[in-house]
């Protein structure tokens, strides 16, 4: 019986995603949070993260335009049901 030895070049290597992909994922999560929560805090988070990513050159012009459009045309809050409304049997 012969033992098999793997050289370091054939071993699986840990990979790190490209920085722009990480930035896109973080911005995407912030966008989803803003679309769902519709709070001033989630908007500020999206604004700050997109500004940082843009400053670092990690946000494409197209992605920056999508964020800018969302911030320019914020989602509207849905009206909640009126408390105490009558129920019909």
β content, as a range? under 5%
Whole-angstrom Rg: 23 Å
Unreliable runs, pLDDT <50, ≥5 residues?
none
Percent of residues in helical segments? 40-55%
Helix segment tally: 3
Shape descriptor: elongated
* Number of separate strands: 0
Termini separation comes to 80 Å
On the 0 to 100 scale, the average pLDDT is 83
* Secondary-structure content class: mainly alpha
Main sheet makeup: none
**Secondary-structure element string:** HHH
Transmembrane segments: 20-36
Keywords: Membrane, Transmembrane, Transmembrane helix
Brief summary:
By secondary structure, the chain is mainly α. The protein contains three helices and no strands. The longest helix has 19 residues.
Layout: helices, strands, pairs:
Blueprint: H1 19-37, H2 40-55, H3 61-72
Transmembrane segments: 20-36
Keywords: Membrane, Transmembrane, Transmembrane helix
Verbal overview:
The chain is mostly helical. The chain has a domain of 36 residues. 53% of the residues lie in helices and 0% in strands. Helix 1 packs antiparallel against helix 2. The radius of gyration is 23 Å and the shape is elongated. The mean pLDDT is 83.
């Amino acid at each position: 019986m012969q033992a098999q030895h793997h050289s370091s070049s054939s071993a699986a290597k840990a990979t790190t995603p490209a920085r722009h992909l990480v930035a896109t994922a973080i911005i995407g999560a912030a966008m989803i949070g803003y679309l769902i929560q519709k709070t001033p805090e989630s908007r500020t988070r999206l604004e700050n993260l997109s500004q940082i990513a843009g400053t670092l050159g990690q946000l494409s012009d197209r992605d920056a335009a999508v964020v800018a459009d969302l911030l320019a045309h914020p989602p509207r809050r849905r009206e909640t049901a009126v408390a105490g409304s009558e129920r019909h049997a």
